[in-house]
Design the sequence.
């Protein structure tokens, strides 16, 4: 995701922080500091007995909230990996976190369980902290009491909020999984998306009349998330019906392993490609990208050969679906893949090729069965 940087890696999953997170952190610290006294009173803790300033507590609680979100997202990701899914990364954003799961576990049941794993983890952690808060009653450990109470409430809220049956919350994914066998994945996604937009409008109205900026912000992102999730699934549905052979570029853009990066750069310019397959002895040995070429100083490009910087990538069959090919590109973070048939390179497929093909297929299908090419039979058939 653009604008995000890696801070750690857990179980092979890169953990990234988006710059928007750094922008909202001081704001959340300020808000938590503003409600510090009322929060302490709700926990039945004398505010004057707590160490540190309200805004220092606010910063600590803001960080704790995002750590809770990270654990929530890890629960999704680890379950997905356990059931054969693939996770690209976890990114902490302005209003929460997102797990980029590039390959979902097979079956609607597994998807529902994976979606439920996050809220269940949050509820379990929240219950544990509230249980600790109860044990600390009478111990006069006011700092620990307040921290346990607030962490318990934050995690309970996170779990309950994400169980709302609407995209992009986890409850929306559970709803889609339950409806998919009857309505099909596309129609089930549309239903969950409509619920998401409905909740977004409700949050917006309440936030507007209560002058609650945070709720208005949540409403905005919930609406965008519901719209984005629906469009993504519709796009996947359309690409699943398109073969790589229909979108690929014929075999003309290729370099040899012995070519210098000066020759590679010139070939990229003339072919207008951001990546080129590297071939040796009649077989593809990797992919050289524009980003890699740029990393080598101009004065050294005569000396560096394509084989030295080629990135190993899998090939794709011309009979594979464009959806599978795009998923592989996103997982590998490469702009294109070589297309190989019976061991011979016959072409290349880039993300730009897929986008262009998608736009043309949408135009073609809209003349037949309306937007996105979803005719009556496809809307009703289960997946």
Sequence:
């Amino acid at each position: 995701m653009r604008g995000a940087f890696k801070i750690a890696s857990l179980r092979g999953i890169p953990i990234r922080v988006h710059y928007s997170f750094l922008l909202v952190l001081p704001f959340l610290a300020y808000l938590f500091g503003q409600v510090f006294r009322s929060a302490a009173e709700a926990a039945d803790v004398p505010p004057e007995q707590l160490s540190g300033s309200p805004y220092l507590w606010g910063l600590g609680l803001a960080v704790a909230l995002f750590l809770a979100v990270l654990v929530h997202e890890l629960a999704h990701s680890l379950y997905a990996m356990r059931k054969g899914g693939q996770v690209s990364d976890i990114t902490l954003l302005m209003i929460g976190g997102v797990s980029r799961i590039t390959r979902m576990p097979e079956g609607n049941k597994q998807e529902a369980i994976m979606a439920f794993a996050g809220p269940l983890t949050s509820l379990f952690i929240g219950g544990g902290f509230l249980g600790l808060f109860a044990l600390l009653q009478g111990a006069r450990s006011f700092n620990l009491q307040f921290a346990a109470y607030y962490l318990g409430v934050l995690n309970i809220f996170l779990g309950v909020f994400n169980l709302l049956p609407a995209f992009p919350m986890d409850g929306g994914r559970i709803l889609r999984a339950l409806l998919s066998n009857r309505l099909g994945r596309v129609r089930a996604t549309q239903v969950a998306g409509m619920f998401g937009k409905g909740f977004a409008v409700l949050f917006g109205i309440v936030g507007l009349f209560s002058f609650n900026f945070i709720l208005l912000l949540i409403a905005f992102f919930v609406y965008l998330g519901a719209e984005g999730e629906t469009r993504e699934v519709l796009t996947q549905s359309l690409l699943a019906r398109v073969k790589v052979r229909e979108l690929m570029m014929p075999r003309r853009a290729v370099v040899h392993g012995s070519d210098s990066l000066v020759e590679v750069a010139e070939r990229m310019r003339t072919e207008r490609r951001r990546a080129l397959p590297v071939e040796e002895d009649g077989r593809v040995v990797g992919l050289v990208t524009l980003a890699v070429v740029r990393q080598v100083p101009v004065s050294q490009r005569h000396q560096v050969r394509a084989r030295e910087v080629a990135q190993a990538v899998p090939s794709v069959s011309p009979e594979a679906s464009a959806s599978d090919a795009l998923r592989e590109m996103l997982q590998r973070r490469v702009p294109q893949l070589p297309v190989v048939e019976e061991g011979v390179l016959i072409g290349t497929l880039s993300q730009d090729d897929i986008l262009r093909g998608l736009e043309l297929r949408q135009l073609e299908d809209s003349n037949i069965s309306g937007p996105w090419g979803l005719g009556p039979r496809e809307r009703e058939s289960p997946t």
About this structure: DSSP finds 15 helices and ten strands in the chain. The first strand starts at residue 4 and ends at 10.
